[in-house]
Design goal:
The chain is mostly helical. It has a single domain (2-64), classed as Arc Repressor Mutant, subunit A, CATH 1.10.10. It is built from four helices and two strands; from the N terminus they run E-E-H-H-H-H. It has a two-stranded antiparallel ribbon. Helix 1 packs across helix 2 (25-32). It binds FE2/S2 (inorganic) cluster.
Length: 65
């Protein structure tokens, strides 16, 4: 499914780019070789980064909350 219409980026592309040491939405777009344009997708990309970070931290984060 396309998340970023402006750059024709699909959810799988963005999830892959959001994993690892990605810290910002700009990092995700940089990894995809693109730049944000209209900005409509940015909140969803930010959520992907948070989800990837939660997965990487595992259950310790959930237990601490
Ligand atoms: S939909 Fe992603 S920048 Fe426009």
């Amino acid at each position: 499914m396309y998340i970023c219409i402006c750059n024709a980026l699909k959810d799988k592309d963005l999830v892959a780019a959001a994993s690892g040491d990605t810290r910002s939405v700009a990092d995700v777009f940089r990894r995809c070789g693109r730049r944000p344009q209209c900005g409509k997708c940015l909140p969803e990309v930010a959520e992907m980064i948070d989800s990837a970070r939660d997965l990487a931290n595992g259950p310790q984060t959930i237990a601490a909350e």
